[in-house]
């Protein structure tokens, strides 16, 4: 089991009292709530970007969001089993570069979308040898990420080398 996230404690983000209580129990101190909203430090995702992951797809291309049926997934969306994110659930992924519904997928993490007003990060996973530029990625995930503030993290030097920025 692996944990990926900004904190070991996983609070109810809608309850600032819960945030403090959980963190106090876990670490003995309480961080200001705005600490959770800060962007990660330079290089924070360097251990994730470029890695190969196997994903389970629970919302295939063309399916409706389970709680918001008006949102239809234009890309495959799933999770990485046994890798846990900041919300305590398995790490969410967007699968780009595949134009058919999937059940499982193995690919490379190209980027990480860091939500500033949520405790989740979303990994952007693509087939081996496939790449997308920053604007293309943001356009493809906008159907769901438009409801959040966030930043896209990519391996900038690799992007410059491949001329995809």
Summed up:
This protein has 165 residues and is α+β, with helices and mostly antiparallel strands. The protein has helices spanning 16-27, 34-37, 134-145, 156-162; strands spanning 2-3, 52-59, 76-84, 90-95, 104-115, 121-126, 150-154.
Pick out its properties.
165 residues, globular, 7 strands, alpha+beta
Task: Give a verbal description of the structure.
This protein is 21% helix and 29% strand. It is of the alpha+beta class and 165 residues long. It has a single domain (2-162), classed as Inorganic Pyrophosphatase, CATH 3.90.80. A five-stranded mixed beta barrel has the order 2-3-4-6-5. Strand 5 and strand 6 form a beta hairpin. The longest helix has 12 residues, at 16-27.
Total beta-strand segments: 7
Shape: globular
Low-confidence stretches: 1-20, 22-26, 30-39
SSE topology string: EHHEEEEEHEH
The overall number of domains is 1
Let me know the largest β-sheet: 5 strands, mixed, barrel
The N- and C-terminal alpha carbons lie at a distance of: 34 Å
CATH topology category name: Inorganic Pyrophosphatase
Percent of residues in β-strands: 25-35%
Adjacency order of strands in the biggest sheet: 2-3-4-6-5
* Number of distinct helices: 4
Radius of gyration: 16 Å
CATH architecture: Alpha-Beta Complex
Protein structure class: alpha+beta
- What integer is the average pLDDT? 78
CATH class (first level) name: Alpha Beta
- Kindly state the percentage of residues in helix: 10-25%
